[in-house]
Every structure is written in C-alpha cells, then in structure tokens.
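Subject — a protein and its fold
Encoding — discrete vocabulary of local shapes:
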Amino acid sequence: MMRLKSVGLIGLCLMLIGAVTMGAWLSQNTYLVKVFYSSTVMVFSTAFCFFLAGLAFLLPVYFPRPAPLVRNLVGAVIALIAVLMLIENLFTVSLGIDLAYIHQWYGDANPYPGRMAPNTSVAFLFGGAALLRSGNSFLMKPRTAAGVMLTISVLGMVGYMLLLDLAYSWYGFPRMAFMTGFSMSLFAGALMLERTEQDVLAKSESNLYVFLGVAVTVLATTMIVSYGSLRALDARNTWVEHTYEVKILSDEVATYLTLAATANERQELNNMGSNIQFRLNELKKLSKDNPAQYARLQELEARLAPTIDAASKILATGANAALAKGRTPLEFQSLIQLMQQFRSAENQLLLQRKQESEQSTSSTVVIIILGNMTGFAMLLYAFWLLKKLNVHRSELELALHQSNLDLEMKVEERTHELARLNQDLSGFNATLEQRVAERTTDLESFSYSVSHDLRAPLRAIDGFGRMLEEDYAAQLDSSALRYLSVIRKNSQRMGMLIDDLLAFSRLGRQDVHKFDLDMTALVREAIHESLQQTENAPEIILDKLPAALADRALLKQAWLNLLSNAIKYSSKAEKPAVQISGVIEGDEIVYAVKDNGVGFNMEYYDKLFGVFQRLHHSSEFSGTGVGLAIVQRVLKRHGGRIWAESSLNQGATFFFSLPIGAQNG
C-alpha cells in the first residue's frame, strides 16, 4: 500500500509539471517559461506525455477498476507520440503533431520549435511500452524500461549542466531541457517502485534487466558521442587548415605591401599592386564566414588603389631617390598596419581554434573513456548478477532434483507398502468372499428349509380353520367366527410372506441368461398380467421403450413388481394413471414408472428397498414389503441400479437403469 501511494505521489507531481507547462505555452506566459526552464524549454508534446503518465500512475490509488484500461491507453498514446517525434527528427520533417504554432511566440534557440528531443523520444518510447499490459504481464519489464529512462534523463541533465550540447552541435537535433530530464527521472522512479516481483529469484532477474538496460544505454550514448566527436574533430581540423591558409595568404599580402613600400620604379610598384590585389581576392573568398576580417579586407582593398596611385606619382616626379624612398613608405604605412591587424586577429583565431580543438578532443576522450568504463562496469555487474542468478537457479534445480529423488523413493516405498497391503487385502477379501458365499449359501438353504417346513403347519392351520368355519359355523358365536377368520387371514398372509421370501432367496441362486429384449412388448405382457387382479384399472400410458440385453424372466418379475406397486398406490386417486417411459443416457438405458398415487416421504427413502420394509400400513395397502427388494436384486445382477423420487400425495416415480451392450451384467 505504501508503494502504491508513493507511485501515486510521483504521478501527481508529473501531472502538475505537465499541466503547468502546457498552461504556460497556451497562455503564452514568457515569465513562467523562463522561470521554470531558463534557455532550454520543455515543448508542449513532452509536457502532454508527462501529464498522461502522471494520470496513469495516480489513477490506481483512487479508481483501481478503470486503471488498467487507462494505463494501456496512455502507454499506447505516449509510445505513438515518441515514434512520430523520432521520425520528425531523423527525417527532418514536420508531422504537425506538436502544435508548433504554440511555440512560435517564444524565441527558443531550437531551430525546430515544438519538436521533442530525440533522446526524450527514445525515453518516452520505453516508458510507453512499459505502461502497456497484456493480462497480468507487462509488454516490457518496467524496471528494464526504468533503467533506460533513468540513464537517458541523467545523461541529459549532466549535459545540460556542463553545457555539453553535443546532439545540437554535431547533429542539429533539439536538446533535452533540464526539467524534462528531472521529470523523466520521476517517471523512471515510478516504474521502479511499482514492480510486481515478489520472490527473490524474480527480483534478482529484474535487477539484472535494470543494469543491462543502463549498460546498453550508456554504451549506445558513448557510441553516438564518439561518432559525433569524430565529425566535430574533422570539422575543427578543417577550420584550422582554413585558418592556416588564410594566415599564409595574409603573410604574402603583408610581404608584398612591404615590397611595394620600398619599390624604386613604377613598374615594380604596379607588379606589387597586382600581386596584392590577387591575394586580397583570395582572402576575401576565404574570409566570408568572418564579418570583421572581411570588413578589414574590403577597407584594405578600397585604400590599396589610391595608395598605389599616390606612390606612383611620387616616383613619377623624378625627385631624388632619397626623397622618394622617404615618402613612399609613408603612403603604405596605414595599409601595412591594417594588414597587421588582420594577421593579429587571424593568429588569435588560429590559437583559439587550436585550443577549442584540443579542449574538445580532451573532453570527448574523457567522455568516451568514462562512458565505456561505466558501460562495461554495468555490464560486468550485470554478468555478476547473471552468474549469481544462475547459481541460485542451479541450487534450486539441485534441490528440486533431490526433492524429486526423495519423493520417488517415498513413492516407491509407499507403492511397495501399498502392494503389500493390497495383497493382504486381496487375501482378506478372498477369505471374506468365501465366508460370505458360505454364509449366503447356508442362509439361503436355511431360508428355503424354514420356508418349506413352515408351509405344512400354515396349510394345516388354514385348512382346519376353514373346516371349522364350514362344519361348526352354526355352533360358534360371532366372536368365535371373527377370531377364526383372523387366524385364517394371518396364516394366509404368512404364506404370502414365505412365498416372497422363497422368491427373493431363489434370485441369489438363479443364473442370468441375457437376450436382446423387445422391452415394449415385455412391458405390455406385464401390464396385462397386472391388470387381471385389479378392479379399479388406471390409465396406463406406455411410450416406446429402448431395447435392452437382459434376462427375460428376471426383468419381467421386476416390471411386474413395479407396475403392481404403481397400480396399487394410485388406486385411491380420482383418476388413477401410470406412465412408462425410457431413454438412452450415455452408456446406460434409464426406464421410469410414474404414478399419481399417494407417494411417500423422502425422509424414509433409505428403507424403501429393504426386505419387509413398508412405508404404508397394511390396513391401507396390501403387500409384504419384498417387491422392491426383489427389483433391486434383479437390477444389481444385471449391473444396473434403481432409485425413486416422490412427495406425499403427489405420486411417485421409480427409475431403473441397465448398462448398454457388453457392459450389462
């Protein structure tokens, strides 16, 4: 949270700088421009980019939801402006994107008013790319871009403070303003502060990117400075040679002026005058770049002809030689002094250019040496970080490998232990299955024997009761006859229970013989048999049912039980109805029997398929409570399942499924 607030504070500063600068330009306030930026000013497009960047950094503090979208938009706009400004600088064109007319009122030394400096454009290009995000990842590592931007801004501020306008002097590009460099440093600082790396490995990798970015930027700047220095050195050498050439010609003019002043004959004087004029013309061509020297040469040329004429007249008077020699030098004295002034100025200019060349060469050498040393130092540190990162990764990989080995050993131990447990469990299961089979066989034999042995006494009870009713009804009162009827009904019910128990026990011993069944035809038979014993027949709706692979006899018994229950429990409805349907779902067939009867409470669902379990009293509906247990056993032997859904007085729906094809049974 503290880091987010710091980034927001930097964003606020960038917005203020951008807003004040844009306001100064739009209001044409020369005082603000001079106070804040001295001689080199921040152009309008630069201020606009800083304002946008500040907005992208400040917005997450107060409005986090739209912040990512605004950040991407700001990054794209800043990167686009930077690219267009680079195109303007490199190809010396004007795309009109910087509102150049805003800058026309201010007398900036920049030969291209309104054009952003190229190093500022490069820094903004990296900053815009660092602001762009795709999902949860940045298009460019923010700390890498921050390293490049910080290096460019520091170099720009140092160049401004040391008056090293190299880019302007050598290439004619606009210069970075000091406030631009300071604001760019804030931009880079915000990118560094908002880093998202949490673990040590990610932070080390991020630091590596920072120093690589700084090293590359320093070396690239040094390369540009080296190239510009060579160009400047060549230009300075050319000017030194030019000055030497002017100096030689001026010496020749001075010599010829001296000879003309000591001439004894008019012809000799005229020859000296011609030589002087020829060399003056050459000097004027070479001195056009120097107005002061050019003015001296024009004055010398204007006074040369009258002086030669005056000296020629003196020689023509025929005066004695001593008098002529005394008067002629006086005529040329002013010209010789003027030429001496020209030569003295040229000597000073030559000395100045030599000193500038030597000073510039030494400064360039220092810059190149320092730049290369700094760049290589950064590279060495980056390589050291890379080595440290690789060592850390190797340690992690070794630890991971060792962990994998330990895990494999533990897995192998657990596998052996599990195999042993499985083997023990298999033996236990086999023993248990054998015991269960034995107990099941014993239980089924016992059930069959008990059921078979109980039949005779029950038949005897029912038979003797019937004979009592038939032979001695007249001798018995009404209570005795009622008691005798109850005895017979309970013996008959006991017989039904024994029959159902025998049927249930036979299912465990009966083999399953599967055939392709026409399920619709089988259900019609079951419906016909079920309705024969029903007085209040319901409306039965039978949909076309999918065929299945099953044992016909067992499945018919299941259908009979389900249909009998549906008919029985819907018999008390005003309009009893039963619907039978089926559908294929995945790798199984699901059948449904739905009625509109009394239903049941789902709280007692767990008792629904138990033997002798009933959810309704026998006085309401007849039955033994074995039918659904028989259906469940039939379906389990086919590899299927049964379930139900119901509500009280809302009917019930019983579903059962059979696997398709070879999966059946």
Summary: DSSP finds 16 helices and nine strands in the chain. The first strand starts at residue 133 and ends at 134.
